[in-house]
Amino acid sequence: MVVGELADAADLLVVGGGPGGYAAAIRAAQLGRQVTLVERAGAAGLGGVCLHVGCIPSKALIELAGAAHRTRELEHAGLNADGVGVSLERFQAWRAGICADLARGVRELLDRRGVNVVHGEARFNRPDRVAVRTPDDRVVFLEFEHAIVATGSRPAPLPTLSTDGERVLDSTGALALTAVPESVAVVGAGYIGLELGTALAKLGARVTVVEALDRVLASVDAALAAPVLRSLAALGVDVRLRTTAQRLDDGALVVAGPEGEDRVDAQLVVVAAGRLPNTDDLGLAAAGVEVGPEGLIEVADDMRAAERIAAIGDVVAGPALAHKATAEAAVAAEALSGEPAAFDARAVPVVIFTDPEIGTVGLTEAQARAEGLDAKAATFPLAASGRAATLGARDGFTRLVTDAATDRVVGVHVVGPHASELIAGGALAIELMAAPGDVAATIHPHPTLSEGLHEAAALLLGHPLHVGRV
Amino acid sequence: MEFRLPDVGEGIATAEILTWHVAEGDRVSEHQDLVEIQTDKAVAVIPCPADGVVVRLCGEEGEIIDVGAVLAVIEADGAKASGDGAAAPESASVPRSEEAAPAATRPTLPLAAPTTRRLARELGVALEDVAGSGPHGRILREDVERAAEQAAPAPPATPAPAAPAPSAPAPGEVVPLRGVRRTIAHALTRAWLEVPRIIDYREVDATALVRARTSLRKRALDHDDEPLAKALTPTPLIVRAAVLAARDNPYVNASIDLEREQITLHRHYHVGIATAGPDGLTVPVVHDADRRSLADIALEIAALASAARERRLTREQLAGPTFTVNNFGSLGTWMGTPIIRPPEVVNLGVGAIRDRVVAVDGAPVVRPTLVLSVAGDHRVLDGDTLSAFVDQVARLLEDPVLLFEDLR
């Protein structure tokens, strides 16, 4: 590698090694490209936020908290739960092992495809060139034929309360806790805040959730959030809406709500107030790539932001979700390699690991109506599911939204255990334009929660098995 | 209302649009001819289902559509009359919104699965312009392929114009395979590839046959039955002979199903009559030929032939032959090589009756003769079983009084 103004050649350059970046690198390599991937955390950071401080570690924590909580819940079912306890120190070792193993796996996948992984931070200084600052402070230049920007996002800071790594943490800090705090105030009732708040409450912390808006989980339909709200109440989580965090005061967080200021017990404060795209320090202007007011890069449907540059994942519009980034990654790699690719998914599923879980894909009934569709919906309640009864889960449902004019499924919404697993069936139905009759004619195994989708379809067709006419 | 291609029965899954009898925007009345379609078996005219206005015709002439696919969208008069509660209870609110925002302008994405969308991009087809032939207008891969074919003008697809080859012959007129021709092409390709065929050629002295036919004709004319006289060609006599002979040779009136590994010996005698039509060969059927009088058979064959000429054969008239008689002699052909149409196992070809010099009692004599060429499916029939049948047919034709035997 050459130091100085002389540039190394990179056929296809990927900036960022998260679920978007590494997927783009692999797809491009499969298409015969020579791929260089620049990751600021090096090979150990492959997998990005998702793998290291997002999806994976949070699901590990939620799994542990859920198991501890469930054990106690099942006492009435015959389980002797005496002496159930949790060590977050041991948890951290386990989590670190999972993350390291998975990152190593990504590294191997890239190696096998001949992807050159460069440790450093990339910055564009020409439409065809990046400068990469390596950890030992050298700068190398890479001149690329094509580039894919996949730099992801970071937690958004609060104007009133900055994280300090001790008492005020972001989600990354919360996932690294080695002891369960006595009391926690979670700022932000989006999916990250509620997932963390739920897990911490199940681990034994007294949790208060502070949300500036007038509802939780503002990104999903209110009907989906209702069972989650009931469950939070049962867990003793204090949810304060239309309330903002002001400042720390001794062992409390001062908040301002509709009834004025109040003090909330908070040994720790976890800030989960959304995420910001990592586009501000990339030199994108020098590359001829425009960044919008929200920090998002505008792209065409082939993910191109400029002739040679594509952008994917959290730096472009849409939900900041790993699977969306991964899907866009394939499109970008293919489009830049001359294939007629386009991101045209009809729906991006969203999963939320609250208790109960939420899985949602496609349109709600109201959205469908607003789009001018002849919307018809049917809801199968979890309470009518035999499998749910054996799980001790009664609050939740599967809702199917259809367009009667074209006789097809346009939305599926699941609230209940394993909704995150169940929603893929809904996504398939939407992409393949299944008619409700197709879903009803597809045999779903018993006894499983997946029957909910089948029952909702049957309900819509007027011949449900396990519910009366609703 | 969406009017779908009705299930025309007989296990037919697709039909080809031959001719539209209406255009988009036309006012139509119930039972008026809407479209002429061609299935594997027949041409049929489908009537309009209601009074109204044709909003959309879903398919080009020559296009093949599935049973159940939308054929046309017709705005029925009943749907507009707000007072007609029985016909359309929701009509009061529906038409207004439909007029304001017809389905085409709905802001929904094209109804196509991911691989179909990908194919459209690969072929440069705008899905918005593709009429989907699937349920509710779902766009299928075939629709995209068809749209690409129609959109692509032939020259740019081939680099030939860039390098004109002087020796390359000018392409002749290209006639697309359509309608009956397409059905024939596919069916006979299958038949030819599938059936191991043997043919028994047999010269028959037709002296008595000619005499019998002349007498029968004269008798019909004496009864002022001109239609019957006209219908009494050699064909009905041959059909009768074939049926009588088939009764004694059950493996002739049979069908084979190799997949199930079984031969079915039919109890009924439905004789297919190969008939030249304006669009090509059709094979209408004389049903239960064993239970009909000769006059009945003759008149039926005449009726079928004229229906074929006028393209108005019904599905029933084409259904279920158990073997076929092909009198290509009427075209002047001396001897032919019939092709068997599976699952049938016999096609009996009849050549023209001509005077020939034949040996009679060791002396050359001029006699009217005809040549039978009887094709048999060798999977079912061997040389001896086929020739036993042909023998009997020949004997019946040489001594046609036996055709009227009902001694049992």
Give a description of the structure.
The complex is a heterodimer of chains A (470) and B (408). Chain A has 470 residues and is an alpha/beta fold. Helices cover 31% and strands 25% of the residues of chain A. Chain A contains 13 helices and 22 strands. Chain A has helices at residues 19-30, 48-53, 55-73, 88-112, 171-175, 191-202, 222-234, 322-336, 365-370, 386-390, 419-431, 436-441, 451-461, and strands at residues 7-15, 35-39, 116-119, 121-126, 129-133, 139-149, 153-155, 168-170, 183-187, 206-210, 238-240, 244-249, 252-257, 260-265, 268-271, 275-277, 309-311, 350-352, 357-362, 375-381, 397-403, 408-416. In chain A, the strands form five sheets. In chain A, strands 1, 2, 3, 4, 5, 6 and 17 form a seven-stranded mixed beta sheet that branches. In chain A, a hairpin with a 4-residue loop joins strand 21 and strand 22 (408-416). In chain A, helix 3 packs antiparallel against helix 4. Chain A is globular and about 70 Å long. In chain A, 51% of the residues are buried. With 408 residues, chain B is of the alpha+beta class. Chain B is built from twelve helices and 19 strands. In chain B, strands 9, 12, 15, 16, 17, 18 and 19 form a seven-stranded mixed beta sheet that branches. The radius of gyration of chain B is 28 Å and the shape is elongated. The N and C termini of chain B lie far apart (59 Å). The relative contact order of chain B is 0.11. Residues 80-107 and 154-166 of chain B have low confidence and may be disordered.
How would you concisely characterize the structure shown here?
The complex is a heterodimer of chains A (470) and B (408). Chain A is of the alpha/beta class.
**Percentage of residues in helical conformation of chain B:** 25-40%
Largest sheet geometry of chain B: 7 strands, mixed
Q: Would you tell me the overall average pLDDT of chain A? A: 94
Low-confidence stretches of chain A: none
Q: Give me the oligomer status.
A: heterodimer
The counted number of beta strands of chain A is: 22
Global outline of chain B = elongated
**Rg of chain A:** 24 Å
**Largest interface by Cβ-Cβ < 8 Å:** A-B, 18 and 19 residues
User: Structural class, from helix and strand content of chain A?
Assistant: alpha/beta
